[in-house]
Amino acid sequence: MGEFEAFGIAEKTGWTKPDVANSYVSQFAMAADQAMLGLVKAASPAPESTVLDLCCGHGAMTAKLCDLNCQVTGLDFSEEMLAYAKRIAPNATYKNGDAQSLPFDDQSFDAVLCNCGIMHLPDQPRALAEARRVLKPGGTFGMTAWVGPGASPSFKIVFGAFMAHADPTKGAPAQPDFFQFARQDTAREMLEDAGFEDVKHGTVSCVWSLDSADQLFKIYSEATVRMAMLLAAQPSKTIEAIRSTMEKMVEEMHKSDVGFEVPVPAALIMAKA
Ligand SMILES: C[S@@+](CC[C@H](N)C(=O)[O-])C[C@H]1O[C@@H](n2cnc3c(N)ncnc32)[C@H](O)[C@@H]1O
Q1: From CA 220, how far away is CA 234, in angstroms rounded?
Q2: How many whole angstroms from 15 Cα to the centroid of ligand 1?
Q3: What angle do CA 114, 118, 119 make, to 5 degrees?
Q4: pLDDT digit string (tens) for 29-71?
Q5: Can you give the pTM of this predicted structure?
Q6: Ligand 1 binding pocket mutation candidate from 9, 55, 124, 226 (most atoms within 8 A of CB)
Q7: Which residue range is the domain that position 230 belongs to?
């Protein structure tokens, strides 16, 4: 794993915690499932086609692909996340495995799709090369990744509040740039380096629909791994200052008739093997 080994270990520890899995499903999936619908629409896999749902997590995309009559395999390294997937998409095949070292033969799938997963991996070039290896010639690769604070109101609030109050060098191991796939040139270069062709880059509009202005802090502090780690490493006074700043920003900028609406756009990247 090299340079980001500690990050990989922290991710695995986080995603296998039952309370993180539970919070992801009940809170964060609200936005991730919107990105997923954009990804499935862009891929539009044919009925009977073989599709790998990479980092399948709670299985929302697995279930959607099963509804489209695809032959779906879901892979994730968290048994806690896989348990949710098995419940909502019992007809798929599942593997507990590492996205950077896929337990499949070359050219096994018509499509490999990864919703909000690649940015959690320490060795992303290797994961992309693995996705390319298991795709049939001409097969479809598709992924989503969150857009960074410069163009994402949601991440602008979180990072803005964090940088205003906290020490960002404390609490989480070094990791690859979480938002790099949102940059068209970087995404294209990484996918082409992995052997993909015909790379296309777009955006899916996703929105947090919140009942209270405080909910955004709750989502990032309970339903994520890295952000939760960064927050937990700060003194309680700092955490309270971040929480309060985030609440104020949501309240001031994102009030709607029914609650609060905070956009959290995702980058959508499609390519061919
Ligand atoms: C942010 S969640 C995304 C889940 C799901 N794809 C979705 O649409 O919401 C990231 C998922 O990637 C999984 N994951 C992270 N690193 C992984 C790795 N190296 N191999 C397999 N799964 C991994 C986690 O267990 C988690 O379920």
Answers
A1: 14
A2: 8
A3: 140
A4: 999 999 999 999 999 999 999 999 999 999 999 999 999 999 9
A5: 0.97
A6: 55
A7: 2-272
Q: Residue 93 has which token pair?
A: 């095949």
Total domains in the chain come to 1
Q: Check which CATH number belongs to the domain holding 88 and give it.
A: 3.40.50.150
Ligand 1 center to 123 CA (angstroms): 14
Ligand 1 pocket member 76 (CB < 6 A):
yes
pLDDT, tens digit, for every residue of 83-128? 999 999 999 999 999 999 999 999 999 999 999 999 999 999 999 9
- Backbone φ and ψ of 190, nearest 5°: -65, -40
pLDDT in tens, 226-247: 899 999 889 999 999 999 999 9
Determine the atom of ligand 1 nearest the C-alpha atom of 28.
9
Q: How many A from CA of 258 to the centre of ligand 1?
A: 32
> Residue 181 C-alpha to ligand 1 middle, in angstroms?
16
CA distance 237 to 167: 13
